[in-house]
Specification:
8-stranded mixed β-sheet, 10 helices, alpha/beta
């Protein structure tokens, strides 16, 4: 029994893992309601870099196998470089199946763009960043710019654009039709039930929906630049998932940079190092045009 409890604890830690939360001064506005659906208020927290006027905005999408996690304690490693950060909550798969989470994310982008002057960040170029399942949703949001069937009608700013101008994807699944074939036994123990909850059915019963939910298949020549980070020892989301997304981007002649971290697993300190944040900042400066 003790062994089972220890395994469960380690599994939850790995599922919820995200880039390390760097300590930095910031002005924080908590629990802003960006939309409502049914009886659910969808909330976000806004972190503004002190002393920086009209910064670019990064929207953070948390991980948690699509079924858990929250907007609390996002990674703040990009605030010292002058970026604002919005960390959002969205409906979990146990509450609403795909594409509800994507609809919520796009609603948050519309809200943030509509309220840019109120809060003091730029609305023209919005960056989206996520890790694990949040990395998947970030990449999917960016590769489905202007895809009407995946836009949804959540929120009160439906005339605003939900388009993303850059994607930062940390070890996210990119092809939900191949991830299970690539996975370790441990990965399968996490991903099979998680994907079944995400879609309401096993993947093999919803192949076309899983295809629509895969950034690899959504990539086209109009997509924004993407910066991908993955550890080569990730036993939950195989590094092949990021390699597939890189190849899809290259096929479409899009700007992509993949950083593979030797020895890194699924989350942990390696993803919050200053050197990585500096590399990511250089990519943003170069490609956010």
């Amino acid at each position: 029994m003790k062994t089972l409890l220890l395994y469960t604890s380690l599994l939850l830690i790995s599922i919820y893992s995200s880039p390390v939360n760097a300590q930095t001064d910031s002005d924080i506005i908590k629990n802003i309601i960006y939309a409502e659906t049914g009886n659910t208020k969808l909330l976000l927290d806004l972190y503004m870099p002190p002393g920086k006027k009209n910064p670019y905005l990064i929207v953070w999408i948390h991980g948690g196998a699509w079924r858990s996690g929250s907007k609390e304690s996002p990674p703040l490693g990009m605030l010292p470089y002058g970026y604002a950060l919005a960390s959002i909550n969205f409906r979990m798969s146990e509450e609403a199946i795909f594409p509800a989470s994507l609809y919520d994310i796009k609603a948050s982008i519309r809200f943030l763009r509509a309220n840019a002057k109120k809060y003091g960040y730029r609305a023209d170029k919005i960056i989206i960043w996520g890790s694990s399942s949040g990395g998947h949703l970030a990449a999917l949001a960016g590769t489905t710019n202007d895809v009407k069937e995946l836009e949804g009608n959540i929120g009160t700013h439906l005339n605003e654009s939900s388009s993303i101008q850059m994607i930062l994807d940390f070890y996210g699944p990119s092809n939900l039709l191949t991830i299970l074939n690539q996975s370790t036994p441990h990965g399968l123990s996490v991903r099979v039930p998680a994907l079944t909850l995400l879609f309401g059915k096993p993947v093999e019963q919803v192949v076309e929906i899983a295809r629509k939910a895969s950034p690899v298949y959504q990539a086209d020549p109009s997509d924004p630049p993407i910066f991908i980070v993955h550890g080569d020892q990730d036993i939950q989301v195989p590094v092949n998932q990021s390699l597939e997304l890189m190849e899809a981007y290259k096929k479409n002649k899009l700007q992509v940079q993949l950083e593979i971290i030797p020895g890194a697993g699924h989350g942990g300190d390696a993803y919050g190092k200053k050197e990585l944040m500096e590399t990511m900042n250089r990519f943003i400066i170069k490609n956010l045009k």
